[in-house]
Amino acid sequence: MGKRIVVVGAGAVGGYVGGRMARAGHDVTLIDPWPQHVDYIRGHGLQLSGMTPQERHTVKVKAMHICDVQSLSKQTPIDIAFISTKSYDTEWAAPLIQRYLAPDGFIVSLQNCFNEECIAYYVGWGRVLGCIASSIAVDLYQPGHIKRTGPLGGEKHIVFRVGEAHGRITKRAEEVAQLVSAADSAKVITNLWGERWSKLVINSMRNGLSTVTGLSGGERDLNDIVRWVGIRLGSQALRVGQALGFQLVSMQGMKPETLVRAGEGSQDALAEITEILRTTARERSDDQRPSMVQDIMKGRRTENDFINGFVAAKGAEIGVPAPLHAALNELVKKIERHEISPSPDNVANL
Question: Based on CB atoms within 10 Å of each CB, which residue in 18, 66, 150, 219 is the most buried?
Fold first, then answer.
C-alpha cells in the first residue's frame, strides 16, 4: 500500500506540492484553515497553472478544513505529514497533526525559516525532516487556484532539497525527495542547516524589500537603489550565518563570499552580483511577487519576524550586528499596521 500523506497548510507552496503529488497518484489530503479554499477544491478540484500551457491541471485531491481534522482518528494513521504553514503557525500545526501519525510516521517542514526545532519539541528530533523549496514562486490567487509565477527548475536548478537534522542520507529522506519530485526537481542533502540559512539569505534580501517598496520581484531587482539595499541585506545575513558556523552554499548563482564583498563595497563583486540579479529579474513573470507581499494584499500577518527579524536577533545574540535587517523588519511592521504605504521611498535612506 502507498503511504498516507497529509499537507497541513495548503496555501501556495503546500497546495502546489500536495496537488502535484496527488496528480502523480499518491494518497494526499490537504488540510487548510480557509473554508472557501477547501470548499472549492472539494467541489471543483485544485486548479494548478504555470508559465506554460503544459503546467495547467485540474487535480482531484482530498481536502479538509482544520475543524475536521479530528475525524482522522477514525482513518488510517498518517505516514508523512508535510507542514507548509507560515512559521508563526508551526506551534499549532505540529501538535494538531502529531496525534494522528503512525508509530513510524514523521513530519516534514516544507516552510521558510527555521522551524524544525519547534516541530521537534512536539514529536522529537527522530520524527522531523526539513525540505527547502529553493527559488519556487507560486501564488494562491483565489480559492482553489494556484499559479506558478516562475519557471520550473528542472535539471538547471534543483528546487527541493530534503535533509535530516543529523546530516546523514536516509531511506525516508530519499522517499520524501521522490515524492516532491512530482512538483519539480529534488535531491537529498547532507547540509540542511547551511542550505536553510542560504535560503534565508535570499528571502531576507527579497520578501521584506518587496513588501515595503510595493515592487514585484523583477521590478525590485531592476531598481538600482532598491537592489543595492537587497545586496547589503544579503551581505549582512551571510556574515551572521558564517559566524554561526553554517556551511553556506551558492544562491541562484551568487557565491556567498562574492555577495558578502558586494555588500561591503567591492566593485568587482558588486558588478557580478548586479548582473546575476538583473538577469534573474528578467526571467520572472511580470506578476511574480513574494509570498510576503501576497500576505499584505490579503490582509494577513507576515512572517518577517522569522526572516529579517530572525537574522537581526541571531546577529545580536552572537555579536555580529545586522542593523539593516532590524530596520527593514520595523518597516514591514509599519506596513502591516497601515502606518505607511508601500513605496520605494521607504528604503531610500536605509
Answer: 18
At 345, give phi and psi (nearest 5°): -60, -25
Q: What angle do CA 175, 181, 186 make, to 5 degrees?
A: 85
User: Average pLDDT for residues 91-96, to the nearest whole number?
Assistant: 98
Residues 6 or more apart whose Cβ sits within 8 Å of residue 143 = 34, 36, 37, 39, 40
Residue 31's CB is within 10 A of a number of other CB atoms, namely: 28
Query: Which 8-state DSSP code applies to residue 340?
Result: S
Q: What was the pLDDT predicted at 287?
A: 67
> Of 152, 119, 156, whose CA–CA distance to 137 is shortest?
152
* Sequence-distant (≥ 6) Cβ neighbours of residue 298 within 8 angstroms: none
d(CA 195, CA 249): 6
> Could you give the 3-state DSSP secondary structure of residue 115?
coil
Taking a C-beta distance cutoff of 8 angstroms, is the pair 95, 114 a contact?
no
Question: Any bridge partners for residue 32, and if so which?
Answer: 65
For residues 202 and 225, what is the distance between their CA atoms, to the nearest angstrom?
18
**Going along 22-111, which residue ranges are E strands?**
27-32, 46-49, 57-59, 62-65, 78-83, 101-109
By the 8 A CB rule, do 177 and 187 touch? Answer: yes
Query: What does DSSP say about strands 101-109 and 27-32: parallel, antiparallel, or unpaired?
Result: unpaired
Vertex 334 angle, CA 330 and 340, to 5°: 130
In DSSP terms, 130 is beta-bridged to: 109, 163
Judge contact between 290 and 112, C-beta under 8 A. no
Q: Please state the pTM of the whole predicted model.
A: 0.93
- Set of cell numbers at residue 337: 499596521
pLDDT tens readout for residues 222-234: 999 999 999 999 9
Rounded CA-CA distance 81/131 in Å is: 12
Q: What angle do CA 320, 90, 309 make, to 5 degrees?
A: 25
Percent of the chain residues past pLDDT 70, beyond the cut = 99
Pairing type for strands 128-133 and 138-142 reads: unpaired
* Distance separating alpha carbons of residues 236 and 245, to the nearest angstrom: 15
3-class state of residue 8 by DSSP: strand
Looking up cell 480559492 gives: 143
